[in-house]
Prior knowledge:
Blueprint: E1 2-4, E2 11-13, H1 23-27, H2 64-74, H3 78-94, H4 102-113, E3 122-123, E4 129-130, H5 172-178, H6 193-208, H7 214-224, H8 228-242
Antiparallel strand pairs: 1-2, 3-4
Helix pairs in contact: 2-3, 3-4, 3-6, 4-8, 6-7
Amino acid sequence: MSVTWMMGEVSVQKVGVLAAVAVTALLAGCSSLASIPGDMPPGPGAALPAIDVDAPGRAAEQLRGWADEQSGSVGIEPVALEAYGYAAAVLARSKPECGIAWTTLAGIASVESGHGTHRGAGVDADGTVRPAIIGVALDGTRGNADIRDTDGGTLDGDTTYDRAVGPLQFIPETWRRWGVDANGDGVIDPQNIDDAALTAARYLCVRGGDLTSADGWQRALFAYNQSNKYMRVVRDRAATYSIGRRV
C-alpha cells in the first residue's frame, strides 16, 4: 500500500503498519553515519537484566534501573526504554528463536513517533501516550493508501477512513489482529507504548522469523514497511542505540 509519512511528502510502501515521520525529518540531527556500525542486523545494545515477565501490573518497571542507565546516552525516556526492553524480554522467553533486540524496537519507534513524542505528545508513567498520536486519513490522496474505516472510528476517531494510531503507528485492523495487553491493566491500547512495543515485537517475529540473521531482520522490517529507505533509517537508528549513542 502506498502511503505518505505523517510529517512529510515522501511516499513509501507499507504493509500492516504505517510510518509516521518523513525521511528528511528523520535524518535531521542524526549522528555521522560513518561512525555507525554497519552490521545487519543492528547490534542488540546494552544487555537486559533478568526480570519476571509475568509479574503483576506493569512488569516493565523492573527495568527502571537499566533504563535510567541508558536513557541519557541514547536520548530516550526511561518509560519508553522499559517498554522496548520488556517486549524483547517477553519474546526471548516465548519465541527465543526470533532474537529480537530492544534496539530494533527503539529504531522503529524513533521513526514512527519519536518514542511517543510526535507533535508534543508525551509518555506517562504508565506508558500511555497523551495526547493520542493519530495519523492522517488514509483516503488515497497525496500518495496515501485508500483504506476505508475498519473500526467504526473507535481507535482513530474517523468513521470514513482508517488512520494509523499510537507510538508504533498501527492500522486499526492490524491492531485488532495483533494487539496485546503488556502493562497488565486489562486494556489493549495502541496508545500505550508497552502494549504497542510488545505488539510490534510479536508481529516482527512472526513475519521475520530469525531476526538475528540479516535475511530475517530485513524480512521483518519489509513486512512492517515495504521501503528500502525506511529500512535503512531504522537500521541506522537501531545501530546508533546499540553503541549507546543518541540519534
